[in-house]
Known about the structure:
The protein is of the alpha+beta class.
Amino acid sequence: MKFPLLAAAALCGSTVNAEIYFKEQFNDDAWKDRWTISSDWKSKSELGEWANTAGKFYADASDKGLQTSEDARFYGLSAAMAKAFNSSEKKDLVIQYSVKHEQKIDCGGAYIKLIPGGDNFEGTKFGGDTPYAVMFGPDICGSTKRTHVIFHYDKKEDNLLVNKDVGCESDQLSHLYTLVLRPDNTFEVFVDNKSVRSGKLDEEFDFLEEKEIKDPEQSKPEDWVDIKQIPDPEDVKPEGYDDISEEIPDPDAEKPDDWDDEDDGEWEAPMLDNPDFKGPWSPKMIPNPGYKGEWEHPMVPNPEYSYDDNMYAVCKDGCTHVGFELWQVKSGTIFDDIIVTDSLEEAQKFAEETFFKKKEGEKEMFDEVERKKREEEEAAMADMEDEDDFDMEDMPMMGDEF
């Protein structure tokens, strides 16, 4: 996606005062010094190895990312930010990174976490039980394909998931995921720089108690009539109704000529459903003259409800690290171009320099790889058919050996 010249100029001006708390592109071997493997989280046999690679298709072989490389493994990795992000500064929080599922992922996470902890954070122990402030990114398993948006809320001591699922991409190409959390208690999610969800925290998450509750002093009156219909008291069952049998002998059936009553027993005509049988009788229903409608419980203001101006403050004590803690059934996901900043414009500028710069070239190489794969598969299929034809020609005809 290319920005118009005026928009690009606006970006340049608006990013002057932007703060970058973390940025990573994995293009040098020193990434191992910046990141810590969660070696004490799981046993060595359960942890998968990370590979530093551009993958199978790319725009630039030297532009690498970090890839999960072993199937059915846990993956844990974390890094310290250049500066702690503190919500008390009342700045936007922007988290952005790219994800490429080269493996046609069937089940596995690809989300990133923003983590507090400061000097007390132990990277080797970072895992699924480590407290976090934000969890964001795609998670796919079978037909479930969602982008997690989860914020920790101290007042409830809980991690709050967005109430309505946000979709995610599941093809094999790179996609850019961006989350913006604003101090006006709103959020927004972008995929490939297109806004896919935005809203107020109190409306899209369960930060607050309900504004109204059912009045505990009220209950449905005992004489309240909420039955819409009643049996017609004037409807009477017809005389002889119960005498009508459910089945009757087939009137068209005849005893076979070869039927022998002594040997075969007394002949009986087969039975048919009786068209006059209407089933058990019941009176017809009529509108209930006493019906008052469905009773609605009166609502009253919830005394537990209180608006919180600081719902956005997920990093009130400072977020100091980013990390991945994942489980993947089928490995091959590549992560790249991570940035944590206080400016959406800065994140978009970084995306132009990285993700969008290589997007078209990656797609071209992917299409070429897929084309060659199809040609090879078609050639292999043709070879198999030729072999089958050859084997049929070599088979002796029936009777040749006699």
